[in-house]
Amino acid sequence: MSRLVRTAVLAAAAAAALLTRAASSSTAVSTPQKSPAAGGWERYHAESFTAAAGDLCPFAVRSQVLFDREYVRITDTFDDGSPKVEQYVGPLVVRLTDRRNGNSIQRDLSGRGVVEYARDGSFDFRLQGPVAVGFHPGDSLPPGYYLLSGHHVVHFAADGTRTVTVDEGPERELCSVLGAS
């Protein structure tokens, strides 16, 4: 998955979050302790990014990582050793800034996420929010950068199209919140 897609999803989760609250059995994972290597956990670092006007929001938006203690572990692999299933956990806090006027909001995106990759390049992201995911024209939600709370599954097709296949919680479109601040 491209770094921008993964960052957008994690800063979804996770995305990135990804990654805090009571998780459903399909996404339940333990938060790593002081020695994450003991459970196969490795540090994951979400990256700050800027999206051009019209990409996620009608205006250019900057997502700046303020606090990141995320971890990732591979729990299953394909025969060639590439990841088949990855789990993401840990706190993530970001600041979103409207590049036109400097207005900003801060959001906790410390949900959980499980990524299940398919051989065709698609993947399912099982999310227990709060996480943030960007949607574009042609996706199942109108274009925007969404805060997803509760349990969601977002399918990323090999062509990048995103479809919410499980919707068990509220979505909040953050571009409108940011534009009104």
Could you write a compact summary of the structure shown?
It is built from 2 helices and 15 strands.
Question: What's the topology here?
Answer:
Elements lengths: L2 H8 L2 E4 L25 E3 L4 E3 L9 E8 L1 E8 L5 E7 L2 E7 L5 E5 L3 E6 L5 E6 L2 E5 L8 E5 L2 E6 L5 E7 L2 E3 H7 L1
Antiparallel strand pairs: 2-5, 3-4, 4-7, 5-6, 6-9, 7-8, 9-10, 10-13, 11-12, 12-15, 13-14
Note down, in words, how this protein is organized:
The structure is a single chain. The protein is mostly beta strands and about 180 residues long. It has one domain. Helices cover about 10% and strands about 45% of the residues. It has helices spanning about 5-10, 175-180, and strands at about 15, 40-45, 50, 60-70, 70-75, 85-90, 90-100, 105-110, 110-115, 125-130, 130-135, 145-150, 150-155, 160-170, 170-175. It has a 7-stranded antiparallel β-sheet with strand order 2-5-6-9-10-13-14, with no helix packed on it. The longest helix has 8 residues, at about 5-10.
